[in-house]
Amino acid sequence: MVLKHNLVTLADGKPRCGWVSDDPLYLPYHDDEWGRPHRAPHALFELLILEGCQAGLSWLTVLRKRAHYRKVYDGFDPARITRYTPKKLERLLADPGIVRNRSKVDASVTNARAWLALAEREDPVSFLWSFVGGEPKVNRPRTLKQVPAQTRESEAMSKALTKLGFRFVGPTICYAFMQATGMVDDHVIGCCSIAS
Which pTM does this prediction carry? Predict the structure, then answer.
């Protein structure tokens, strides 16, 4: 892997954002998911939970566990997650295939309840996308240093989600969520994913 400015050029010769590696999960995540708009409620809920689980860890750590999360979290079905019993939560906390942090596991249930409550009031997709005016916000940073950790939009989202009862939704987590869902596109100038 050769680092050139804020891009990496991997074995295929294509320049990509400097944070990506040739990991078999990370590379397609960067190329096909990150910064691409997601508007399906299921995808947004899944990413909201996973971004919260990532707090304090690398995204690659969570990405490597994502398939197992999907299995043990019932496909990220919020209605099923709200019915998790203390016994189920203890099984999750003993499962090495996920991030075994009680606060994060408990937050997934809390967030599933908050998601369903939000869905009774309004469309969660429209609500979440409203923080970027309903359309992807395309940034074209020249350097990785120009990519913020949080913005006014992510701060507003964080405050609104917290008010609705969500947990692990600080402004930095919300900004990572915005990037993961394509609400924000922060691919660095010169990245091959810009043209595709």
Answer: 0.95
